[in-house]
Input
Amino acid sequence: MRISVIRTGGFGGAPKRATLETDDDKLIALVREAVDEGREVPPVGVPDGFNYEITVDGKAVYCADPRLTDAQSTVITRVLKEGREEA
Output
Protein backbone atom coordinates (compact mmCIF):
# COMPACT_ATOMS: atom_id res chain seq x y z
CA MET A 1 0.00 0.00 0.00
CA ARG A 2 1.25 3.48 -0.90
CA ILE A 3 0.31 6.22 1.59
CA SER A 4 1.01 9.92 1.01
CA VAL A 5 0.48 12.73 3.50
CA ILE A 6 0.58 16.46 2.83
CA ARG A 7 0.56 18.73 5.89
CA THR A 8 -0.26 22.40 5.32
CA GLY A 9 -0.99 25.36 7.57
CA GLY A 10 0.62 25.97 10.90
CA PHE A 11 2.37 29.13 11.98
CA GLY A 12 5.04 29.05 9.24
CA GLY A 13 2.72 27.74 6.54
CA ALA A 14 5.38 25.63 4.80
CA PRO A 15 3.89 22.37 3.51
CA LYS A 16 5.46 19.01 4.34
CA ARG A 17 4.97 15.97 2.09
CA ALA A 18 5.97 12.35 2.55
CA THR A 19 5.14 8.96 1.05
CA LEU A 20 5.44 5.54 2.65
CA GLU A 21 5.13 2.12 0.99
CA THR A 22 4.03 -0.58 3.43
CA ASP A 23 2.77 -4.12 3.69
CA ASP A 24 2.43 -3.96 7.51
CA ASP A 25 -1.04 -5.37 8.26
CA LYS A 26 -1.49 -3.27 11.43
CA LEU A 27 -0.64 -0.04 9.62
CA ILE A 28 -2.86 -0.98 6.67
CA ALA A 29 -5.80 -1.50 9.06
CA LEU A 30 -5.14 1.92 10.64
CA VAL A 31 -4.89 3.53 7.21
CA ARG A 32 -8.25 2.08 6.18
CA GLU A 33 -9.80 3.40 9.40
CA ALA A 34 -8.19 6.84 8.92
CA VAL A 35 -9.49 7.05 5.35
CA ASP A 36 -13.00 5.96 6.39
CA GLU A 37 -13.02 8.72 9.02
CA GLY A 38 -11.69 11.38 6.62
CA ARG A 39 -13.67 13.96 4.71
CA GLU A 40 -14.03 14.34 0.96
CA VAL A 41 -13.44 18.10 1.18
CA PRO A 42 -10.94 19.95 3.37
CA PRO A 43 -12.54 20.81 6.74
CA VAL A 44 -12.26 24.20 8.38
CA GLY A 45 -9.40 24.05 10.84
CA VAL A 46 -8.29 26.39 13.57
CA PRO A 47 -5.98 29.41 13.16
CA ASP A 48 -2.36 28.25 12.83
CA GLY A 49 -3.50 24.62 12.98
CA PHE A 50 -2.43 21.93 10.54
CA ASN A 51 -4.54 20.57 7.71
CA TYR A 52 -3.83 17.15 6.21
CA GLU A 53 -4.44 15.36 2.96
CA ILE A 54 -4.06 11.58 3.17
CA THR A 55 -3.90 9.78 -0.17
CA VAL A 56 -4.09 6.01 -0.40
CA ASP A 57 -4.00 4.23 -3.74
CA GLY A 58 -5.26 7.38 -5.51
CA LYS A 59 -8.08 8.24 -3.08
CA ALA A 60 -7.59 11.46 -1.10
CA VAL A 61 -9.31 12.39 2.15
CA TYR A 62 -8.86 15.42 4.39
CA CYS A 63 -8.68 16.13 8.10
CA ALA A 64 -7.50 18.95 10.36
CA ASP A 65 -6.25 19.69 13.85
CA PRO A 66 -7.62 19.54 16.49
CA ARG A 67 -10.21 17.00 15.31
CA LEU A 68 -7.93 14.15 14.23
CA THR A 69 -9.03 10.65 15.15
CA ASP A 70 -6.50 8.33 16.80
CA ALA A 71 -6.09 6.41 13.54
CA GLN A 72 -5.52 9.60 11.53
CA SER A 73 -2.99 10.91 14.04
CA THR A 74 -1.06 7.63 14.05
CA VAL A 75 -1.00 7.34 10.25
CA ILE A 76 0.04 10.96 9.75
CA THR A 77 2.82 10.69 12.34
CA ARG A 78 4.20 7.44 10.89
CA VAL A 79 4.15 8.62 7.28
CA LEU A 80 5.74 11.99 8.04
CA LYS A 81 8.37 10.35 10.26
CA GLU A 82 9.18 7.15 8.34
CA GLY A 83 8.20 8.08 4.79
CA ARG A 84 10.25 9.53 1.99
CA GLU A 85 10.04 13.33 2.02
CA GLU A 86 8.99 15.00 -1.19
CA ALA A 87 9.60 18.54 -2.33
Notes: Strands lie at 2-9, 16-21, 50-56, 59-64, 84-86. The first helix runs from residue 25 to 37. DSSP finds two helices and five strands in the chain. Helices lie at 25-37, 70-82.
